[in-house]
Amino acid sequence: MNQLATPRRGLLIVFEGLDGAGKTTQLGLLYEYLCQQGQDVVRLREPTEGPWGQKLRQLLLHGRGDVTPDTELEWFLNDRREHVDRCIQPALNRKQIVLLDRYYFSTMAYQGTRGYDPQDIQARNEAFAPPPDLLLLLDLPPEVGWRRLKQRGTPSHFERLGYLEQVAGIFAAMDFPYLRRIPAAQELEAVQSQVRREIQQLLQRHAQIGG
Predict the structure, then answer these.
(1) Does pTM top 0.90 for this prediction?
(2) CATH number for domain 11-206, candidates 3.40.50.10190, 2.40.50.140, 3.40.50.300, 3.40.50.2020
């Protein structure tokens, strides 16, 4: 691949998809590649390690218990608001490339299964959270993701096939100009190759238009 162009402003690149789709692995490979190419890049994830993110991670470990859907959604919003203020927006202001493992699209998909309108969740988030320059949705059949999760060990409270099928349905309905779907059932190298092509095209576009 040719030398990558350098963007003239910060760029937000989000990885999304079902549990088991390989988001964290693919993001890590891209991070290493961009660093080797001399890009100023930072990697982040949600939920964060902050107080609200820790509450959400406890739900993954122990189940929702008596936490209501409204409370859970508010925790996501609070966690993301802090993340935008403390990490995401400052990095963009420094003209860095931000690679983000999950964002409000996951909230739309996963909380959408609890009866919330995904478009309403999107609007509530975009009141304070910048939309991405590129959304890489790793597209994986739910049954494949379920098998991968079982191979890794005991699935979490939320990692159930029926649940993943509902989430996949909401991801499938998403349609944004910055969204690119990448088949994630391919070999790891093939997925990464496609990821890098999308990144190269994004950087070229922004270099040509002056960021």
Answers:
(1) yes
(2) 3.40.50.300
